[in-house]
Design brief:
alpha/beta, six-stranded parallel sheet, 6 helices, 6 strands, about 40% helix, globular
Length: about 200
Amino acid sequence: MAEVLVFHHGHGLTAGVREFAERLRRSGHTVHAPDLYEGQLFDSLEEGAGYAENAGFDTIIARGTAAAEELPAELVYVGFSLGVLPAQKLAQTRPGARGALLLEACVPISEFGGAWPRDVPVQIHGMDADPFFAGEGDVDAARALVETVTDAELFLYPGGRHLFTDSSLPSYDEQAAEQVSHRVLGFLDRVNVTAGPPL
């Protein structure tokens, strides 16, 4: 099965992110979920974003990169919102990536070098009225990526919630999150079959 590296969002490594990782494990995948906040958890997204800004987004990305260096190259990278930064960077720049799952965020391809690897499939998920995903340009970056990459999909869900996939937060939307989980598991099964054994 696939080996997956999951990066949490701006609240930190919440119970909901851990539950997501565990669900993938129950489906047979090997899942790693490092804590990019070094044990910090925040009740509000504003507080969490403040921590990330003070630490520096480059530092958060560097922590994600360091976590990946301890693992095989043949990973599927998953990022929730803020976690998309290290996930997308690694998928674009670290050789061997098997795929990327970008949840509720996406940055322009040019942010990490201007090209998406030809053989790395990607799925992007977000709500169509999310003030962060839809209102701050992420959905535009996602559409541009899908137009550029052969094996890329963008899934939009009705609603305006950010972090709707985290079952431990008030923003959780069970129906939409279940759709995301179903598509994520299908993606991992497909990537595992098509990628073949690690080199």
